[in-house]
Amino acid sequence: MSLLEIEDLRVSYPVKGFRAKPIEILHGVSMEVGHGETMGLVGESGSGKTTIGRAVLGLVRPSGGSIRFAGQEISSLKGAERRGLASHLQVVFQDPYTSLNPSMTIGDILSEPLIVHGASSGHARGRVRTLLDQVGLPSDSIDRMPREFSGGQRQRVAIARALAPGPKLIVCDEPVSALDLSTQARVLDLFLDIQRETGVSYLFISHDLGVIRHISHRVGVLYRGDLVETGPAPQVTSTPEHDYTKRLLLASPVADPVKQKEKRQKRRELLAANA
Ligand SMILES: Nc1ncnc2c1ncn2[C@@H]1O[C@H](COP(=O)(O)OP(=O)(O)OP(=O)(O)O)[C@@H](O)[C@H]1O
């Protein structure tokens, strides 16, 4: 049994206007995330990646299908039952500038989820030091404010906060796209190290095929609310089967200008063949 099993997931959003019908964003998505696995979810803006993450986190109610976590149906959980899941299911958002409370110290930001789950303040303080070490931040960060940190360091704090309750799965929603390239690489490596140490699973959302290739064991490609291709990361990101994935691959930038030119030509040919 996989840790997360999503089956025929449908989500619709309301549309403003008298008698306007809700618009369906996800049209029956099925996918799984195994224990200790990273499932990468890639697709262009508006394809519904974040909506899948929000449905898993209980932030949006599906109009159909099921979401099972560790064997339990969670799509209709509410109140205390949903809150009880929080220690197993965490999230890291895209923007490290807005996701941390600017008026709290790093120590308080990291202690909060521990104290909510019943830890004493002494125990929480000790655990915070371990978490800071785990994400590569100095222990004196504990008394500092988020504004004193760079974007990459703030994202490390956000990762530590997600790790605090010892989750089984972290939904990572574009967690490196607000960072510059070298910081991206370091934060991605941190995600990999943490997974090796803790066995946590990731549902890793990104529009960037390069990022997805680097971090994922398996990849799902989302196109306009449908999962059009799923498979091992090396296969999907180098020899994709679906035309949309081929276009996505040819649209991703490469450093070598000759290769970039070849890619542009292949992309033109593919588009012409499908015109
Ligand atoms: N709360 C909402 N109400 C109405 N429509 C929404 C809402 N949230 C998202 N949408 C629409 O649902 C579609 C999918 O959005 P979603 O954020 O899931 O896509 P995405 O693939 O994550 O895109 P991006 O990479 O730009 O974040 C978009 O057309 C978006 O405008």
Notes on the protein architecture:
The protein has 275 residues and is α/β, with parallel strands linked by helices. It has helices spanning 49-57, 79-85, 106-116, 121-134, 151-163, 181-198, 209-215, 233-238, 243-251, 257-273; strands spanning 4-13, 23-33, 38-42, 64-69, 72-73, 89-92, 169-173, 201-206, 218-223, 226-232. The strands form two sheets. Strands 6-7-8-3-9-10 form a six-stranded mixed β-sheet, with helices on both faces. Strands 2-1-4-5 form a four-stranded antiparallel β-sheet, with helices on one face. It has a domain at 242-275. The model has no long low-confidence stretch (mean pLDDT 91). The chain has ten helices and ten strands. Belongs to the ABC transporter superfamily. Residues 256-275 are annotated as: Disordered. InterPro entries: AAA+_ATPase, ABC_transp_ATP-bind, ABC_transporter-like_ATP-bd, ABC_transporter-like_CS, P-loop_NTPase. Keywords: ATP-binding, Nucleotide-binding, Transport. Pfam families: ABC_tran (PF00005).
Q: What is the secondary structure topology, with strand pairs?
A:
Elements: E1 4-13, E2 23-33, E3 38-42, H1 49-57, E4 64-69, E5 72-73, H2 79-85, E6 89-92, H3 106-116, H4 121-134, H5 151-163, E7 169-173, H6 181-198, E8 201-206, H7 209-215, E9 218-223, E10 226-232, H8 233-238, H9 243-251, H10 257-273
Parallel strand pairs: 3-8, 3-9, 6-7, 7-8
Antiparallel strand pairs: 1-2, 1-4, 4-5, 9-10
Helix pairs in contact: 3-4, 4-5, 5-6, 9-10
The structure holds adenosine-5'-triphosphate.
Adenosine-5'-triphosphate binds next to helix 1.
